[in-house]
Design a protein that fits this description.
By secondary structure, this protein is mostly beta strands. It contains 2 helices and 29 strands.
């Protein structure tokens, strides 16, 4: 495994940003920057033998700092939405930033995606760590978190998370990579399979209500391979709530999903120990320029964000996002790439 690092520009305040790369013998490579512990590039061999960058992103640190969308970033402390931007823990009421209508999204105004991490090459892994101090975005406790990125010779890219806090707090770490297996254009012709029989009902603000809905007989049924765009225009209240797909699926096993593009021949299998996965069809990705000036926008990628269920503090039947003081949290998600 080849490892390397290089300067990646600087933030507006002059803070230098570094890019770290892993590359296997097949030429597959992943680059992660220490701003947001962000997956900046993911080069995968396609059916013609050439490499395809399947992750949307930017060429400079300044673009990551200036733009929204969480492209490729580590998300925390709490990925996805917290209803009413507030929660109660141990009898204390915590008020959070309302950065998504009335809700708190992806950790607040300045979540983990907009923070500098300490990056290092440790053997064949890229390891990023930071302390989220007590009160950051009004979450309690000093949280020490590490995200490790590894790559195998047979095409398995893994993201592993470890965290511990000195007070009871909330934690729901995730990664927000936007995948396009053709390297650009629309993903509506990508074929998707999701190993789930139920998904979380959402309200008009994409916030789970606590009710689980069966996928059977709905546009949300991806139990067998289906083109992402096939049912996107269906007359369905839940599609209207998300302006497309932007829902958490209740996973039925370790294999969460499979994404395939006939264009590139690349197949991506998502494997995780998490109970949920947010399927997002990039409904809110505004028109912009990415790496090499490539255009990206609505339906230009798909996010498959493994996670605990959103709004878990307000839905008592959902898996709890509470991390108790001194308890070590660990979770991992693998992205296995192959060619058909």
């Amino acid at each position: 495994m080849k490892t390397s690092s290089r300067p990646f520009g600087a933030l507006a305040d002059g803070t230098p940003v570094t890019a770290y790369t892993l590359e296997n013998s097949r030429g597959m490579a992943v680059t992660v920057i220490d701003y947001g512990a962000t997956v900046q590039a993911l080069l995968v061999p396609g059916k013609t033998g050439g490499l395809v960058d399947v992750a949307l992103g930017y060429d400079t640190a300044a673009e990551y700092e200036a733009n929204d969308g969480f492209l490729g970033a580590a998300i925390g402390r709490v990925g996805n939405r917290i209803g009413g931007a507030r929660f109660s823990l141990n009898g204390v009421e915590y008020t959070l930033a309302k950065n998504d209508g009335e809700n708190c999204l992806h950790g607040g105004v300045k979540g983990f995606d907009k923070r500098m991490w300490t990056g290092a090459i440790q053997g064949d892994a890229l390891v990023f760590s930071r302390r989220s101090p007590d009160g950051e975005e009004n979450f309690p406790g000093n949280l020490d978190v590490t995200v490790a990125y590894t790559l195998t010779e047979d095409g398995l890219f893994t993201i592993a998370y470890d965290a511990v806090c000195d007070k009871d707090t909330l934690l729901n770490l995730a990664n927000h990579t936007y995948f396009n297996l053709n390297g650009g254009g629309s993903v509506l012709d990508h074929e998707l399979t999701i190993n789930a029989e139920r998904f979380c009902e959402s309200d008009a603000g994409c916030l789970p209500t606590g009710k689980l809905l069966d996928v059977e007989g709905t546009p949300f049924d991806f139990r067998t391979p289906k083109l992402i765009g096939r049912d996107l225009g269906a007359d369905c209240e839940q599609l209207r709530c998300g302006h497309g797909y932007d829902h958490n699926y209740v996973l039925s096993g370790k294999t969460a999903a499979m994404l395939y593009s006939a264009g590139s021949g690349i197949e991506l299998t998502v494997e995780t120990d998490m109970p949920g996965m947010q399927f997002y069809s990039s409904n809110g990705l505004t028109e912009r320029k990415g790496k090499g000036g490539k255009p990206m926008g609505v339906h230009g990628a798909v996010c498959l964000e493994t996670q605990l269920f959103p709004n878990g503090m307000n839905c008592w039947t959902f898996p709890s996002p509470v991390l108790r003081a001194g308890v070590k949290a660990h979770t991992a998600t693998g992205y296995r790439f192959a060619v058909r």
